[in-house]
Amino acid sequence: MRSFDLDALRCFVLGIELGSFALAAERLNRSPSAASAQLKKLEQQCQTPLVTKVGRHLQATDAGEIVLGYARRMLQLNDEAQLTLTNNTLSGQVAFGLQEDFSEVLLPHILGMFSRAHPQLQLQSLVGRHKELFNGIQSAELDFSLGWEGPEAASYSESLAELPLHWYAPTDTHLREAILRAYPLPLVMFDSTCLIRQQATEALDRAGIPWKISFVGRSLSSLWRAVEAGLGVTVRSSFGQPSSVTSLTELPKLGRLRVCLNRSQYALNEVQQPLYDMLKQQLLQHLAYLT
To answer: Would you say the C-alpha torsion 8, 9, 12, 15 has a positive or negative sign?
Structure first.
């Protein structure tokens, strides 16, 4: 029985995620011809085409989807083994924070892999709003945090990407139409300190669309549930969007928000840096679908 080439699998996964093997080759510091050769080798091993072209982008075939699932699992185990072998002496404590938009997607994977690789390392995570995380960085209670860029800038910050904001309504057609017919437009939002709420209301004001706050949530999950129930529309990025809501194009166009990793100090120590790098890597991998 033949063994799959992990480098070829990594190139295949990244090519599908980015929609381009040229971009995958660039990300992996390889030539486009080398990436094409790896894909061809993988297809020969599988004895079936793994990708098909849809417009200007590449898409996995049915067989490719099967290989994609196995490839991600194999690469995760490989990376976890590498992490364990190269950093098996880490011990101490790391405290980091995430905004809810990112926590459900990133936190389980990161905590699981890092904890298994470093059983002597104590991890503390805080999922909170922007102000709470910012205060944690300023007071050094958090070593680093991931979230939206706010009006107040952290002393040490790394900007990773800008994500577009979208309007969201229930997937249920009748509920969605009832909300759009309502006057004034009902909104499901956080409190008035929320950066995204400010963008939403300013866009409606510029378009001359009357609005009212129909629901104020304390957590992101409560916002999604309120929208699903038909209490109004909300605004978020598509990161972590649940299947119970759908994006809208009928309302005014919104801006973008910058995603940042903030640090309590310029240079992280040998315990903090590996987790910081993993969080950054996982975020960028998921952003490949959105940007």
So the answer is: negative
Q: Single out the residue of 228, 229, 233, 227 nearest to residue 212, CA to CA.
A: 233
Token pair of 22 as six digits:
């040229």
pLDDT average, residue stretch 174-192 = 95
- What's the pTM value of the predicted model, to 2 decimals? 0.67
| Helical ranges in 129-249 per DSSP H | 130-138, 173-181, 195-207, 220-228
**Whether 257 contacts 237, CB under 8 Å:** yes
* Average pLDDT of span 23-41: 82
Instruction: For residues 176 and 173, give the distance between their C-alpha atoms in angstroms, rounded to a whole number.
Output: 5
Q: Which of 112, 105, 18 is CA-nearest to residue 59?
A: 18
Point out which residues pair with 248 in neighbouring strands.
167
Classified as helix, coil or strand, 192 is coil
Among 1-5, 73-77, 80-84, 185-189, the range with the most confident prediction by mean pLDDT is 185-189
